[in-house]
């Protein structure tokens, strides 16, 4: 087996013994299922050589398969990711902040994006011909500050026409990034400069809006766009950031401003462990249903490398490993649902309840103390987690559509002291 | 122009080689030239422009075996022209651990035409369908459903003994009982005897249709690389022509009744082998309840095979008794052998091939019996035709008793 090395865990001798007994059991018992009905019988004939075929190879089954420690089998993918084109662990905490400049008193933040075709690895050994922004799926996480002008220089290097459609409050219809408006679709080899208002503050989404829409999205043209709240604006218009109708006290105002500072990468966001999770899926056989699900493209990439279900031992793999988080730090997940074909996706934490800010447009949670949140397609929000009173160790989180979880959207936090 | 020639004046004498070359050179030359052309294609690749993306992967799961309730074994074949990599395996829409064994080792690729076993350690529930899927490196999926899975019991002496007893009752005893009509048949008029022979032809024709349909049904499960339908056609025609050649070589001149009896016994034996196979594999799958009714059904069904075997020798001298024992054994005992094989292993490819061979053998035997009847009288009399129809009808009716 070329690719199962890292899954070995625990006592190699035990594993070898078990696999040997497993293969022995197989060799002694392999028996083939006869699809012969009664009808087969009349008129027919038998099979002098069939036994040779049925049993061939059985005796050579070797015990070098380290992963099969549990007699009940091990769920999940087999092997490690083989290509290094994309690292979900790196993507998780990477924010593109572009370049900032002033134009006539207006802050302008500039990005460059291109569209290209790229073969990406979505499960160990399984590739997918993706349409990508900047050669990656999800596209780069763009981050700006409320009130800025976001300028994206887009060039299309792919065969098909593409656009970038932002989920922002955009008051210029020319910049909506749809085929029916403004420049329409951007053809191969063409360029266009999109300019968008960075508002409202929150956790947002951009994607290609070419037709057929379902295909352009599920092939990989989407990404996260985070607009940090401006603490000064929050101080002046606190009611824009909270669904609350009581008196606006100084304390509440100060609280909201502080929260805005903790959200803003130019203020104190670095005090929080910020992560981006784009929930996505891939239809590898074009049947209108996803074969692979994930948070950030790679199935089970935030899983444990190998595990022994008998005694709960686990070991991180090279590419398949839990997300390490510090117990004394607040965690914030920018969560976006980019799934196609399925109506909803979800995020569920084990042994943990979190605060949720739908679309991230408020500075007070829209849901408090929940452990499961559902998002429809393109819905997103901010998840704030606190593991300070948890014991160190593994804490699972995943889509609570069990099918999605077992097809790849299954992950772990490794809480460290 | 004085010659009235229509060949344009060609004068090459028949049998002469051009340029005075020896004949063997003429025989070999086309092959040599073919080799040159093939080499040219291999090295120069003149049709490179026609290569557009290559062939699609084609993998077949021929069948699954379930050695115990913790293991699923999928038997897979790569039918395509390119190697395939099985990157992941799905069981009931979940990725699951697996190992692919092919060519005697654990691997993850299958060469063209190569077969292998995907062993999945999965704790399944008897009776609950298993939907399995292979995910290739390019994301292509191939699925296989195992309906109502049951553990195949291990191969024990007890099971073999049981199958032997079942085979005895289902195959050997009914055929032997049927052969006991021999003395009655001996005293019959030619007209009645011919009717009996045509009845036997009807019985065999029914078996040929039944096995033929089953062979093509099984052929659908044969991996594409082995061309299941054509394999069945080859099996039918091959058996027909081979048996015909042997019988024509033996019986130079008159038809040999004892020879025909042996051919009938052999054909029925081949049929009974498949019957045993189906019983054996059903038992192995835990899918059969061999109740008294079913066994009685088999016996009634198979008792008609007895007279078919001995009918060819009813007219004239009685062969030695040991011939009867041999005929009975050849016709009936294969049920036991088939049961054993069926309980151990089964492959759709070989199953379809053997069914086809049986069909071919039956067709030839029917031809032979028809020839015999025609030489001694008339084949197409109303009695004979009706007897043939009765043979078909009796087989159909008794067939309804034995749905496994």
Automatic annotation (TrEMBL), chain A:
Biased composition annotated in UniProt, kind: Basic and acidic residues: 1-15
Where are the stretches annotated Disordered?
1-20
Pfam family of the protein (one): Cu-oxidase_2
The name this protein carries in UniProt is Copper-containing nitrite reductase
User: EC?
Assistant: 1.7.2.1
Listed cofactors: Cu(+); Cu(2+)
Task: Give the Plastocyanin-like domain ranges.
Answer: 121-230, 307-416
Subunit structure as annotated in this protein's UniProt entry: Homotrimer.
Query: Which PROSITE patterns does its entry note?
Result: TAT
Catalysed reaction, written as an equation: nitric oxide + Fe(III)-[cytochrome c] + H2O = Fe(II)-[cytochrome c] + nitrite + 2 H(+)
UniProt keyword list: Copper, Metal-binding, Oxidoreductase, Repeat
Please give the start and end residues of each transmembrane region.
Answer: none
Q: Which residues bind Cu cation?
A: 162, 167, 207-208, 216, 400
Enzyme class per UniProt: oxidoreductase
Record-level Gene Ontology MF annotations = copper ion binding; nitrite reductase (NO-forming) activity
From TrEMBL, chain B:
Give the superkingdom in one word: Archaea
Q: Per the record's keyword annotation, is Cytoplasm included, yes or no?
A: no
Q: Which UniProt keywords apply?
A: Membrane, Transmembrane, Transmembrane helix
Q: Which residues form a coiled coil?
A: none
Where exactly are the transmembrane stretches of this chain?
24-44, 159-182, 194-216, 228-249, 255-274, 320-337, 344-365, 385-403
Report what the protein is called: Metal transporter
List the top taxonomic levels of the source.
Archaea, Methanobacteriati, Methanobacteriota, Stenosarchaea group, Halobacteria
